[in-house]
Amino acid sequence: MRSSTLRILASQLVTKGKVTTTLAKAMEVRKLADRLISMSKQGSVDARRRIRAYLDTDEAHTKVSVELAGRYMDQQGGYTRVTRSKRRSGDGAQLAVVEFVPSERSKTF
Q: Which pLDDT value is given to residue 1?
């Protein structure tokens, strides 16, 4: 899959909170988003530079480095989920929604 497509989808996922795309792209974006959040939790300068290389907007970079890293600090992976959606009417491709899961700290039992 093209890296530019993944970068755009990852940036949209970070800024908007969820994105709808085909199932194959959704699985790849989920992997990339989980990796970016894991890198941002390290907090090093190298990690911030690698995150900036993937995301195309400063808004997305800041949100990953500050907001999402803080939200998932106590969690070890599983930051996003992929939910199957309807089929696209034009070509029948299986669509899916990628979104961030609530953090373990925000869950109430």
A: 59
Q: What is the secondary structure of the chain as a DSSP string?
A: --HHHHHHHHHHHHHHSEEEEEHHHHHHHHHHHHHHHHHHHH--HHHHHHHHHH-SSHHHHHIIIIIIHHHTTT--S--EEEEEEEEPTTT-PEEEEEEEPPPGGG---
Is the pLDDT reported for residue 77 higher than 50?
Answer: yes
Q: What is the mean pLDDT of residues 88-100?
A: 94
Is a pLDDT exceeding 50 seen at residue 109? no
* Domain 3-102 = CATH 3.90.1030.10: yes
Return the bridge partners of 19, or none.
98
> Integer distance in angstroms from the first to the last C-alpha of the chain?
40
Which pTM value belongs to this model?
0.85
Domain locations in the chain? 3-102
